[in-house]
Amino acid sequence: MNPQRSSARIRQVAGAAVVVAALMTTAACGGGGDKGKDGDKSGGKGAGFNAATGDKIANPSTKAGGTLKMISKQDLDSADPQRQYYGMAWDFSRFYSRQLVTYAAKPGNASSELVPDLAKANGKISNGGKTYTYELKDGIAWEDGTPITSKDIKYGISRIWAKEAITGGPTYLKQALDPKGEYQGPYKDKTSDGPKGIETPNDKTIVFNLATPNVDFEQMLAMPAGSPVKKEKDTGAKYQLKPFSSGPYKFESYAPKKSISLVRNDKWKKETDTVRAALPDKITVTINSNMEALDKLLIKGDYDVDMNGTGLTQSGRIEALKKHKDNVDNIQTSFTRYVDMTPVAPLNNVACRKAVVYATDFKSLQEVRGGEEAGGPLATTMLPTTIKGYDDYDPYGVKARGGKPDVAKAKEQLKACNQPDGFSTKISARSNNPGEKETAEALQQSLKAVGIKAEVEVIDGAESQSITGSPKVVKERKIGLIMTGWGPDFPTGQGFSQPLIDGRFIAPTGNYNGSETNDPAINKMFDDALKATDPDKAAEFYKQINHKTADIAAQMPFLYEKNFSWRSSRLTNVYSSTAYNGRYDYASLGVVK
Amino acid sequence: MTRGAPAATGPRTVLAYVIRRLFAVVMMLLVVTLTTFVIFFVLPKWAGQDPALLFVGKQTDAASIQGIREKLGLADPVLVQFWHFVQALFVGREYSSGTDVTQCAAPCFGYSFRTEQEVWPQLTDALPVTLSLAAGACLLWVVGGVAAGVVSALRRGTIWDRAAMSIALAGVSLPIYFTGLLSLAIFSFKLGWIEGEFASFSDDPAQWFQSLLLPWITLAFLYAAMYARLTRASMLEILGEDYIRTARAKGLTERVVISKHAMRSTWTPVLTLLGLDLGALLGGAILTESTYNLPGLGRLAVDAIAQKDLPVILGVTLIAAIFICVANLLVDMLYAVIDPRVRLG
Amino acid sequence: MTAPLHDTSPDADKAAPADVAADVAKKSVEGRSLRQIAWTRLKRDKLALAGGIVVVFLVLVALFAPLIVSLLGHPPDEFHQDKIDPLFGVAKGLDDSMFAGVSSDFLLGVEPGNGRDVFSRIVYGARISLLVAFLAAVVAVVLGTVLGIVAGYFGGWIDSVISRVMDMLLAFPQLLFIISLVSVLPGDLLGMTGSSVRIFILVMVIGFFGWPYIGRIVRGQTLSLREKEYVEAARSLGAGRAYILFKELLPNLVAPITVYTTLMIPTNILTEAALSFLNAGVKPPTASWGQMLSKAINTYESDPLFMIAPGLAIFITVLAFNLFGDGVRDALDPKGTR
After folding, report:
1. Membrane-spanning regions, if any (chain B) (predicted)?
2. Is residue A438 assigned to a domain?
């Protein structure tokens, strides 16, 4: 050992420090190389900020051609129409699957209207609301040119019953037509001719006989689950790798979790379809699970639109709003961000739940999620503003206080709940849901002020069905508060609220009624709403359900979610569709070549 | 691994040694796989969760769960499930739930029911990315690290020595997810020199090179440090040994002494480390691939863990363990070839 | 030479591995103990000392975090959303200067989104980082020493089993394995709740994968010591196995164990940070450097300081430990070269 060596090493460290310092300085003050290369590849300019929100259409056009390039952080949950449940998948499947009726190709709330698609007209309702009859259009064809028949529609719908292979999709149609589950599905039951509730007197007619009336039955038929499937082309669980097209595009290739490529289906005839514009010649989807990178590629102009449609990330938002505001839409979705209050003690006591509501700093939660614009306006009840039955009911005076907490009232409720010093509980948040963990931390922080100690438990999104979706696990893990969000399956009170608050929907797994509310009065109101003869009468019941839910503080809604969506300069015919939770109506999109 | 006491060498002992080592490798892979299996199929159950739920999607009715259970054989005892998994690696497998049968050909690393995809092609798709990353970075760090180490040793105490060792010191102390972000902030965001996503070499060589350049450099920076220090240390040691002095005394030029004699012995520790590092890296450079958004095995694993795609996690873990074990084995073999002092025991 | 059964005099033979000791005995005519020599050497190594001082400083920071933060910052969990532009989610005014969020009130600026005091979180982050690294090193040293000695001393099948286990652990894809494990374990475990659960898991897992490194060295040293005269002598005097193992062998293993422990801590710090970066670290709202870096991915372009602060914290800490560890190794290295 010698002093010389020691001093040599001092110089080494000094050197190391210089290397690092040099890197830092460059990071901090490096010349803004971005300047001057603003023009993206398309060369064009965006249609303007918010050009595709509300009732507006950005770049209306009927010009066909080009490739629509989509990108997404995740793949479709399935490409099989009977297995899809993600909103983006339903929007995307409009390219290759048609239903008897579907949502109108109109901007904003007008999109919620159901218009005939494969059928000549909307259903003829008879038998006290229990029978729906449809006549099919002429000239509708599969991608091999054979005509689409009523039997194909029946076969497609019957696949919903084959739950051993056709997993994942919604089962509303099964519930409406065969609530007892007598039919076994087309794979197990090869003898019978499908579920009893569906009749096909000829190739052009299909008749549905419901067990009990349901005012929203057509909404269920409009889901991709109501799509036809050609029996000879059905490959069971593997059908999702190459669905047989009934729409304007067909699958050219599909590499799950990587890419999708659709090309024109030349057997589809424009005159049989009043909904799909079918402008691009080709549609590609690239999956890239890195959301920040994804936003950069969008902004750079490599892609046109985010198929997932949940908006730009924080970093993407900053860059887009600062440099390319004309390519951005601030979209109001039909998503409500809320906290489920589970029956884990002491939250089984209504006063304790109310204490949580009063103690919550709604403003803080809103700001963590991006404030009024990037997060969304404050919510005081569960129903989104676009759904009939919504009103500005605010039993806890949240809006009147500007979203700020009312500590005095919270403490009062804590006393009423016999927990004057507060209590301990847990908040679950999903790791794959941007901002959910941060929101849970904000809630944790505001509850601390009244002595409620809440621990944040981050769970993997994929596990939510077996953790927060399982009342047993919720109880075991003592999760009192579930941070979550919900969008309607179809734009009515039934499609939004029933899975969340109807006690008969509580399930041992995959449960969405996280508060485990089973209130006979609420259940009855759902029954009455379904029997109503028109949607406006049903809405009156949904309004009462919505109020009642707020009164018992079963859930604590806090935001009606908004996001910033990117629309490339190449995109034409862009508008936000309420029927697809505020996403752009993909079937209408076109591109400048 | 086993570098036991010297023993007599002969073709027979070598063969016995190789067989013994291969057997150890197989045992090790079995244990790694079994442990992973236990983590994902037993622990969740113990915590009250049902692994079948991870495969069914949003609508979880009893029939779907039952279907998955039958297909995956989740009702069987864990060891039986494990045996089926191992068996499938060699002879393939058939997943059946009565009406629905799914074939998975050997080598069957499992099957994702969410995406209706075999795991093996997912692994083989990701492997070239990791290979590209590892090969490029390895080339850089070996060349850079060894050169820096040799220069430092020969020019001990000079400015070169200090500069090289300074960088080495910074290198070993900087986490890659920090240097990675820093490099992206500078070269991609501020200067705009590097942009775009990863492309495979066959699709677009220029983009392939561009997208890998930063990861190569940062990764090499991290590893080069260790190689430089190692090379310098062993070089210094060797230069002091008798046979080098003898070589010099014989009148050989310094160049010959260094390149023929000193370097040869320096390679031994370098190759040992290299084998181990490469083995670990090929199993997925998790942090590098996450930071730079490269679709290699590491990213595949991280995404699969987040999505609880159990068959993929199992597959990546097994592949990673195979790389590590094989690298270990190769290193030990090479050891014997390069350095005659080492005997197999 | 008499068997040093009575451990009273600072005899060089006992304080160091035997070959080292022999070496030293030849060189040090004054008969100083290796410990003394090492200390003299260490004192002369300015850089190792500097590293050591930084280490001590960091330990003090971690110990007195609450005091430091009460004097110079805000509680680490306190939100300051008035400092944040909600639309962009970062501190107001960052367009003009990357130091916009920095003030005498907030020495290192504020965290994006919620405006928490970055300085306070860095200070508290040191606690997690050091705690996990130290405890994991302790676990590794205890396991490694005990199993290494046992393997080396007893040999035979015991040695085979332990060596095989060590080989196996070294062949494990560790990071992959740890994030998998953390991702399936529930939030509460064995009656523990909150962040202590994750700290416990991190310590056990990092320590568990660390012991084979120590174990191998200890085993090797034990193998060579086993046949030494004084152990033989102790054995012939009828000393029990446990006595020989822990009274005779252990003291001679102190030097290599010390070196590897100091060099293991920076590795553990990096592992903890990496796990936190991959969201397998402590639970929110507990501050940790890796988690801060992970969050910085969203904002590093608009708020580089929030990435640089935790990154530098990790760098400085790891560098200090590496310097100190290098110094200790050199000081205990009998050859004095390298």
Report:
1. 22-43, 129-154, 166-188, 208-228, 270-292, 312-338
2. yes
Q: Are C86 and A370 in contact (CB under 8 A)?
A: yes
Residue A313 lies in a domain: no
How close does chain A come to C291, measured CA to CA in Å? 12
CA distance A435 to A313: 10
State whether residue C250 sits within 8 Å of chain A by CB.
no
Distance from the C50 Cα atom to the nearest Cα atom in chain B, whole angstroms? 15
- Is C300 in contact with B181 (CB distance < 8 Å)? yes
Element (H, E) at A249: strand A249-255
Beta strand A205-209 pairing with A131-135: antiparallel
- Provide, as residue numbers in chain C, all residues whose Cβ is less than 8 Å from the Cβ of B321: 171-173
End-to-end CA distance of chain B: 12
Query: Are the Cβ atoms of A9 and C299 closer than 8 angstroms?
Result: no
Q: How far apart are CA B319 and CA B284, in angstroms?
A: 9
- Taking the C-alpha atoms of residue A321 and residue A84, their distance in angstroms, rounded to an integer, is 33
Phi/psi at A581 (5° precision): 60, 30
Residue A559, SS3 per DSSP? strand
Length of chain B, in residues: 345
For chain B, 345 residues long, give each residue's pLDDT as a single digit of tens.
Answer: 344 444 445 666 777 877 887 888 888 888 888 888 888 777 777 766 677 777 776 667 777 788 778 877 777 888 888 888 888 888 888 877 666 677 888 788 888 777 778 888 888 889 999 999 999 999 999 998 888 888 888 887 777 777 777 778 778 888 888 988 888 888 887 777 777 678 778 888 888 888 888 999 988 888 888 888 888 888 887 777 777 777 777 777 777 777 777 777 777 778 878 887 888 888 768 889 988 888 899 988 888 888 778 888 888 888 888 888 888 888 777 776 665 555 544
| In contact, C25 and C33? CB cutoff 8 Å | no
Cα C178 vs. chain centroid, distance in angstroms? 18
Which residues from A are below 8 Å from B115, CB to CB? 75, 256-257
Question: Any idea what the CATH number is for the domain that residue A503 is in?
Answer: 3.10.105.10
pTM (whole model) above 0.90: no
Facing C181 at nearest CB: one of B39, B301, B316 = B39
A458 at interface of C, judged by CB pairs closer than 8 A: yes
Task: Please count the structural domains in chain A.
Answer: 1
Does A14 touch chain C if contact means CB atoms closer than 8 Å?
Answer: no
Alpha-carbon gap: B98 to the closest alpha carbon of chain C (Å) = 31
Q: Residues A452, A454, A458, CA angle at the centre, nearest 5°?
A: 165
- The shortest C-alpha distance from A44 to chain B (Å) reads 20
The shortest CB-CB distance from B172 to any of C310, C314, C322 is to C322
Contact between A9 and C186 using a beta-carbon 8 Å cutoff:
no
| C310 vs B28, higher pLDDT | C310
Q: Is residue A138 part of a domain?
A: no
Q: Does B240 touch chain C (CB under 8 A)?
A: yes
Q: Cis peptide before A116, with omega less than 30 degrees from 0? A: no
- For the stretch A61-95, pLDDT in tens is 999 999 999 999 989 989 999 999 999 999 999 99
- Domain assignment of residue A516, yes or no: yes
Token representation of residue A507: 């399930």
CB of B99 less than 8 A from some CB of C = no
Domains and CATH numbers, chain B: 11-104 (no CATH), 119-338 (1.10.3720.10)
CB pairs under 8 A between A and B: 188
Q: Are B189 and C301 an interchain contact pair (Cβ–Cβ within 8 Å)?
A: yes
> Torsion-angle region of residue A472: left (phi > 0), alpha (psi -120 to 50) or beta?
alpha
- Asked whether C148 and C217 are in contact (CB, 8 A), the reply is yes
Residues 523-562 in A contacting B (C-alpha not used; CB under 8 Å): none
> Rounded to a whole number, what is the distance in Å from the CA of A473 to chain C's nearest CA?
10
Residue A498 belongs to what domain range?
Answer: 3-14+332-562
